[in-house]
Amino acid sequence: MDVLAIWLGKLTSLALRASGRRATALPGLVVEKVFPGFLPRRLGRLRYGVVVVTGTNGKTTTTKMLATILRARHTVLTNDTGGNFVRGTITSVIQQSGWTGRQTADVAVFELDEAHAVRFCRLHPPERLLLLNVHRDQLDRFGEIDTTAQLLGRVARTTTRHVVLNRDDPRLTALADELPAAVSYFGVSAGLRAQFPTDDELYGDVGPTSETPASAELISLELGVTTTLELRIGDVVEHIELRAEGAHNAQNAAAAAALALTFDLTPAQIADGLRAVEPAFGRGQSFTIEGRRVVLQLVKNPAGFRQSLKTVAALQPGVTLIAINDDYADGRDMSWLWDVQFDSVLQGKSGAIVTAGTRAADMAVRLRYDELDVAVVEADLARAVERAIELSAADDTIVIFSTYTAMWELHRQLDRHAADASRSRS
Fold first, then answer.
1. Which of 69, 98, 200, 389 makes an SS bond possible with 273, Cβ 3.0 to 4.6 Å?
2. Is there a single domain that holds both residue 94 and residue 124?
3. Considering its fold, how many domains does the chain have in total?
């Protein structure tokens, strides 16, 4: 039965790729409809079970960090390119199984959308869970923040072995007493606490650092061309240079380290894994286009955009391109852009500003209210990239902030540019 399901999924993937489409969700959806018992049956065979990573921000990168760390000792099944619905996890199982049905993985690490995590847990209660944060997200999809916290609470209560919580997020720490699984924490030091506000602290003072002991704690952080940090893992302080840039990824590293400790890995093994992690798909990935370094950053809510904007001062771009779409996957309601403070970060540091995507004009208006001049308003993403190249010098950095659907299109364009440049050199 499983072999038939895998063949069906793989053939669906091949057909999608042949037509130039992504194969992250539909193969899983097809298999789910035809073979509804496939996913729980396959996951039930994993020796070390399933780790679920969820929360508002940081899921994809943290999943990639954790999967990379665990590969020091395990064979890992994961969906670290962002297919974070149940159908995406099914697609990952199919892609990482042989045509004969053979599955070599002994543990799965899955990023899951907050709402779809609840449905996943009805199919397979996870053995381990990592809860990153709770921030206001797409209101038309998730509703208010307390609704999201309730969803995460439902996931946590189904977890059977161990839950890791962000000790600096009170909506998450409030769950601890009601959980049947063991609980541990990650966090940041008192000196860094102001850089990582909770949702309630975005527009006011940051509260005190929690006194709850954390099994992994971000102690110090230096942002520049690289992201350098000190991370206490258990009782050992490790100095780590991340390839995944930004303060938010330093916090994600602490989260991944705390969960990895539940697998009895040593601090040195965990630190080595973090050093090896490449940026996740569209989350700080770099491309070289006509001599320019182009950095692509996904943004989808106020807290995440604020953290990503901090990379501008470190990278000192010649051009900043902001691409905003409002397709279903992005969320139709773009009012959250008014909750992002652009002036304090971009003023005098952004280089020329280009806005793009279906809401390019709305983004330009938003920036104008922060007294930021926009050089180009161009809805077409391909033309916007070309204009960014024209406005920049050959050795400049171009930073692109992009919503989800625009990111996929931009990623294809940047990949194509890079491939064309490689062919011309050869």
1. 69
2. yes
3. 2
CA-CA-CA-CA torsion sign (188, 191, 193, 196): negative
Residues 309, 420 within the same domain: yes
Of 225, 251, 276, the last residue of a domain is 276
Say whether both 261 and 287 belong to one domain. no
Q: Does residue 204 sit in the same domain as residue 307? A: no
Same domain, 8 and 133: yes
Span 27-61, pLDDT tens digits: 888 998 999 999 999 999 999 999 999 998 899 99
Q: Are residues 266 and 304 in the same domain?
A: no
pLDDT digits (tens, 9 = 90+) for 219-251: 999 887 678 999 999 999 999 999 887 888 999
Please tell me whether residues 201 and 76 are part of one structural domain. Answer: yes
List the CATH number of the domain containing 224: 3.40.1190.10
Tracing tokens 């609840």 back to the chain, one arrives at 118
Tens digit of pLDDT for each residue in 396-405?
999 999 998 8
- For a pLDDT cut of 90, what percent of the chain falls above it? 57
pLDDT at 138: 57
Residues 260 and 295 in one domain: no
Determine the Cα–Cα distance for residues 131 and 54; give it in Å rounded to an integer: 5
Residue where one domain finishes, among candidates 224, 245, 276: 276
pLDDT at 139 exceeding the cut of 90: no
pLDDT at 183 over 60: yes
> Looking at residue 310, which CATH number applies to its domain?
3.90.190.20
Question: 243 is in which domain, residue-wise?
Answer: 2-276
pLDDT at 61: 92
Could you tell me which of 69, 70, 88, 66 has the C-alpha nearest to residue 79?
88
